[in-house]
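Notebook B, p. 112. Complex prediction, attempt 2.
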Amino acid sequence: MSALTQYIDLYRQSRAEISAGSAGALNALRPAALEALEGCRLPDRSDEGFEKTSIDAMFAPDFGVNINRIALPCDVASAFKCGVPNVSSLLAVLVNDRFVPTAPLLKNLPDGVTVMSLAKAAELYPDIVSRHYGSVASLKSPGTALNTLLAQDGVFIRIGRGVRLDKPIQIVTLSSAPVPMLTVRRMLIIAEPGSEATILTCDHAMTPDIPSLASQVVEVIAGEGARIDICDIEESAAKSSRYSQLYARQEAGSDLAIGSMTLRNGSTRNEFSVNICGPRCESRISGMAIGSAAQHIDNSSNITHGAPRSRSNQLFKYVLDDKSTGAFEGSIEVTPDAPFTEAFQTDRNILASPDARMHTKPQLLIYNDDVKCSHGATTGQLDEQALFYMRSRGIPLDEARMMLMQAFMTEVVDTIRVEALRDRLRHLVERRLAGLDASCSECSAGCKSE
Amino acid sequence: MDPEISKDTNSIIDDVTNADYKYGFTSDIDTEVIPKGLSEDVVRLISLKKGEPDWLLDFRLKAFRHWLTLTPPRWAHLNIPDIDFQDISYYAAPKSKEAPKSLDEVDPELLRTFDRLGIPLEEQKQLSGMAVDAVMDSVSVKTTHRAKLAEMGIIFCSFSEAVREHPDLVRKYLGSVVSYRDNFYAALNSAVFSDGSFVYIPKGVRCPMELSTYFRINATGTGQFERTLIVADDDAYVSYLEGCTAPMRDENQLHAAIVEIIVENHAEVKYSTVQNWYAGDAEGRGGVYNFVTKRGLCRGAGAKLSWTQVETGSAITWKYPSCVLAGEGARGEFYSVAVTRHRQQADTGTKMIHLAPRTTSVIVSKGISAGHSENSYRGLVKVAPNAADCRNYTQCDSLLLGSSCGAHTFPYVDVMNDTAIVEHEATTSKISEDQLFYCNQRGIPTDEAVGLIVNGYAKEVMNKLPMEFAVEAQRLLQISLEGSIG
Amino acid sequence: MKELLKVTDLHASIADKEILKGINLTVNRGEVHAIMGPNGSGKSTLSAVLAGNPAFTVTSGSATFHGLDLLSMPPENRSHEGLFLSFQYPVEIPGVSMVNFMRAAVNAKRKYFGEQPMPAAEFLKLMREKRAVVELDNKLASRSVNEGFSGGEKKRNEIFQMAVLEPCLSILDETDSGLDIDALRIVAEGVNKLKTPDNATIVITHYQRLLDYIKPDIVHILYKGRIVYTGGPELALELEEKGYDWIKNQVDKEA
């Protein structure tokens, strides 16, 4: 029996409760989602593109779903620990799928910017939400259809036309539950034409000893000339599983940079699918994964060029230690409508232990002859020559290895455009590589608690 | 770009990618064809016609029964029309009472056919020092230079003959690299294969000449299912060439072959293919469906297997010549040029399976797409947990001529050992206007320049072909892309 | 103690191929040795083995470095104890800045000798001072190690690192290769500035050219993994004049 059945049954039994705990635009899509799931199953390892991660197995355990939206106890104050120090941000917290704003957010939010509960936004701005909700995410993906079927809330972010936000918006997602639970959450990010913003999301497990699963669908609409940076950091726990799907649509001249960092987790599958719909866009997806113990990190990244004269770059790097496993599948698709495309993709991986495993599948699908496209993938070890060179200058082997790993990841960190954030992330990576708990709770000491 | 030049360039690229197929004649040869359709009775009939021993019939029947449980693979980036496997005749043979003992007994029309293909079967004409096995439709017609090879203990004969003369060898190795359970088309071939070539190089022997098989589908409404088995014993060496052509017909013809190669300690096998099956016309009518399973097992330490292929023909190509590197320090190589034009589709590449320590592999794939064709590279590099210190380097380049074609790259890399170094690089490009202009300025017309640039682009692979073949392969590239017939 | 390095019957191989076939060499404080020899004679292997490159295996012989058993030490400790190798091909390390690289090196050495890390201000001052020795551009210091450096910049960077680490034995492996005459002069002047009665230098080179700038006291000729000739500075001039063939012929005839 497919793992999907239990969730469809749940929906059929609890349709009223699910709708009651949500709002119009979200409820409106459920029938279509149900129809899309008809005769479907969640992908498993026999499916092309899921060779190393079975979504079916991820969803198979009998997780609870908090459809009645009981407020679970969570020390939200402790979430401040994640206030990536030295970065002054507009902070909100998502406890499972429940939106909790903070005082500074409410106080400092500039005109033209909305950051709120998605369900609440669907009540306040029904036109905007129903126009965009589900407009980028594809119900053809069973994972997205399931998310659409069950999602009751999440985050709504809108950056108004021409608004330039200088402070990052930070969303800290906390999974917190006394029993094994599936969290279904949704994010809708609308960057109106000419707007600029940086959005940082951090994923943490507050109840690390209890298995948890998150189904997350993020929709990003980058309007004409908008410039949006989205950075997602996962620092959960060994018992956390996550299936995250990010869909983005880019209009003419927009500039989208997505960063993804998996530092601590259990089993993660991230999908990025960016559709370039207007000419002269810039698009970048950068990812890093640092795996140790039994971490499993699977990233699947696609950029489709559907309009001319755009440039895209995908960069993914993994360092895998112990028994950790990594998978990367990336593709560049250039349609006949996208001449003068420049698209590049790089995947570099380091296996640091005999039991670590890496699977990579970088792909090109090109239907246009006026393009510059390339990809490169390597899996190997730290450069022996560089190690010897460093040792010959007196740097001990362990330290030399550490420095080389940090240097290896620098390329990814450097794609973060907000300087303060970049420095902060570099520090997190250094701590993580040093084997220290990178967790923000460690660095909370220096943290402001406004 | 100047619109005039652009128009000019485009029309020339059209011209050069629309050259005709020169091997498209049919031969009027008396052929015995069994009725269309596939059943256990047909499998028995094929075996009976070939006078096979029971163990081989059993092998065929097992394969057939397994085939019934399978469906055709769908994962390739190909649009394969549904094939009615009951609408194909599974056995066609040039009619003759017995196998010819000398050239005088061979049907003169058949000799003329191979002459037109540029393959002289008369041994006195052989200056190139190449031994040839010619397979027309399902049956091996003539193998040359056998006596000379036999002196060295080399066996080079048709598969049917090997079953009769060397049953122990065939039985030992048949299906040992490509099991009938391997895939849909491997099962089909195992059930109905008709003929093919068998090569055995004994210990320490370097085969002094290129061994070569030419395949031709002539009869209408038939499929060709040949099987090649090559065994290189310890320290042996052989270079083997395979060429294929088919007449132009409006219908599609099915070719589902199996090649199995066993390479023992420190032996080396070079396998080169120039595949020029009929590709169908500009609208995509007709052409051969080329669904082939080729795999070599480098069983011995230091064994080396090198695949080189120049693929210009077939309506649809589905093939992944592979190396299983099971012996310590074994090496696998794959060099490929695949040209697609009109409505051709190719999904081809290789698998390098590193099972033993210190094994190395190299993959160089050059795809050239024109017209409305689809050209995909699909490859797997796998390093097993116990295979320490392995290395792979992969380079996949795609060249697009025109904007209605597609070029795709699907590499799969699976590393399960932390001492492995695996590198993959791929680029997609078109012939640059700068290059064309530079050639023009030096007085080289655009059509010639395109041919020049494409040949330069493919050179790395072409250089790997044996001399005798390289000339033909270069000519083939010219025919495919330069428009100069002959 | 006058004796700084004593190498006795040193054999070393790479991938089971023996390159060094019994090297004997003694270097005293205050001396400049030149090791010359035709390509492939084992010059770079000797420097790599002395610095402890794990790619090579020492099969027999010994080397003492101011009384310590050099061959038993990991490469970083050889560095701390004052052995410096200027690489023929300095390694590029993308993503590691020169500043971080040198700070790690300096502080590792201090830690080895039980000292506290160098305060940042002091370290920056040290870098500034030492850069002047080889006229190294400040910009290079902020770049990744050797990445995008020209051939001359890489070699100057090597001498800069030598100045910072203040070794007692410097091995300059083909430091002149790929340098134009100006760069050669700057590098050689840097080396000469760092020379004291207490330290020693081994200059490995194919040509006499560098020896016009760094005057050797003793010249060795290495051929087929052995030192086949040892003489004074005049030996280098003789080689320059006659080439290596007369040595080769003589040695091959004896063998």
